[in-house]
Specification:
Elements (H helix, E strand, L loop, with lengths): L2 E6 L11 H11 L3 E6 L11 H4 L10 H11 L2 E5 L3 H4 L11 E3 L1 H10 L2 E5 L1
Parallel strand pairs: 1-2, 1-5, 2-3, 3-4
């Protein structure tokens, strides 16, 4: 089993770029690999209340970003939020409905070192 860590740096400013990270992590889990996503910089803004419910995938499936997030969580993907990015996106951790483990720079670095592959998505 390989351990993949995906790093998502884009959020509400580029909604079309918010789906891939959840899709890739879900596929990794379906292939019996371990997968985690670190949301940093504006990537945390994906969790702005109501945003994911209204953004549709470009594939015409009618699926929302919330559907992709739910699929990833259902498959067991671990979500990490970068505490240092919170002032950038002006989100209160208590307002996020999805379980995120909050990390700092040292934790972020350790997760990357422990991964077999780190994938940076911007």
């Amino acid at each position: 089993m390989a351990r993949f860590v995906y790093v998502q740096t884009r959020g509400i400013e580029a909604p079309e770029r918010c789906f891939t990270v959840f899709f890739m992590a879900t596929v990794a889990k379906a292939m019996d690999d371990d997968a985690a996503i670190i949301f940093t910089q504006t990537g945390l803004s994906i969790f702005t209340q109501g945003f994911a419910d209204h953004v549709l995938a470009l594939d015409g499936s009618g699926k929302t970003l919330t559907d992709f997030i739910r699929n990833a969580k259902d498959q067991g993907v671990t979500f990490y939020g970068c505490r240092l990015s919170l002032p950038l996106v002006q989100i209160e951790p208590s307002s996020i409905e999805w379980p995120l483990t909050w990390i700092g720079a040292a934790d972020f670095h350790s997760l990357l070192l422990e991964a077999d592959r780190a994938v940076y998505l911007s």
